[in-house]
Specification:
Number of strands: 33
Number of domains: 1
Structural class: mainly beta
Helix content: 10-25%
Largest sheet: 27 strands, parallel
Protein name: T9SS C-terminal target domain-containing protein
Keywords: Signal
Shape: globular
Distance between the termini: 14 Å
Organism: Seonamhaeicola marinus
Strand content: 25-35%
Length: about 425
Amino acid sequence: MKILTYLLLLVTANVFAQQEKGIVGNNNWLDNWTEFQPNQNNYREPTQIISGNITENTNLYKRDTYLLVGDVFVINNATLTIEPGTVILADYTSKASLTISKGSKLIARGTETDPIVFSSNRSVRHAGDWGGITLLGDAPLNKFGNGSVANLHYNLSPENYINVNYGGDNTCSNSGVLKYVRIEYAGKRIRGVGYLNGLLLAGVGNETVLDNIMISYCAGDAYELWGGEVTLNQVVSYRTSSNDFKFNYGVQCKLNNSLAIRSPYSSGSDGSRCLKVMSYDKKEEVDFSKNGTQVIAKNLTMLNDSKDLQANMDMGLINEAVYVGIGATLDMNKSVISGFNPAVILDDRIVINQESLEKVKFTDMYFNNCNGNIFVENNSNNDDLENWYGNAAFFNVYSKSNNLETFIDIENQRRPDYRLRINKIIATNIDSDIDE
């Protein structure tokens, strides 16, 4: 009888585990390395300056605090290695940025208890204080003639133009490691270009490791991906003014177990979403014989932390969580979308038929407190989409509950827990039965 009971519990536990939605983990993986109140941190005064071009292998150490000045490039196939616990402050006056050129590497391998931090050197820090981090690789994209980020830099010297190109044929290229890294207050604005990003990945290949990264208070997009083939695991975007994740130019991306927390008071005027999935900006700039953008997203939590959701929607402060452009493919599974207006918008050039909808998948989803679920842009009649995605075969769930009831502990400012509350209750019940 005990054996039978134990087997039954194992089966029950597996069934529940298969139904977990949003960010998951036996423990709260946000603990220790994340920071949801970065402006309360007082970093040490810089003891070393980083500027100009880094042309040979270079190490940064925890014992020093570094000041990043101006546009810094890692070139000549050099590797910049950063010790766990190191703090790099970006100079606000020169609007500093760090670019890892094609062929070079950034090895920023922090630890859970000793993360690497990139932040602003201002006494009172604000979104857009500095330019952020750019990784350039030689993996494929769908643009004609590959790409360049020359327009992202002020007064770029002629010898550096070769260092801002990206793209190629090497899907397995390696731009390094970012693990247990925080990037704070990035996204400077450039006249005629717009806002830069917290982390721009252009032509980055699949040997690059991108795990446990937190980007907070970014004025531009937190994560922007142009081409390449990458996997993002357990990454966080917090109170970004623009998009949390933007995918474009044929990127092939897996986005796993990750979190986007939006605030209605930190959104840009041109539209701000958790996910913006596109294959191109201008049709004439891409080669349609190459792969379009494909994103596979699993166990995401996308949350709007509004205290008065309806009032903020009425004021136009809340947008959709997900936007899918024409030619792009999105497969989203076991994810939570809570508090958006509406949950998803499809580009109005997408023809609503079975072929198109098989490229935009939402399965095992939890739609909560959204002002509508899935719509075509500029079309308020979504009956066809509701019938399609509401089919029981997709296992999508719809709910109206407030954030406190939905998530385990989102009011804990030091150690918030954005896992679904229901999953914790189920796990607790199972564990107690086994113990008995």
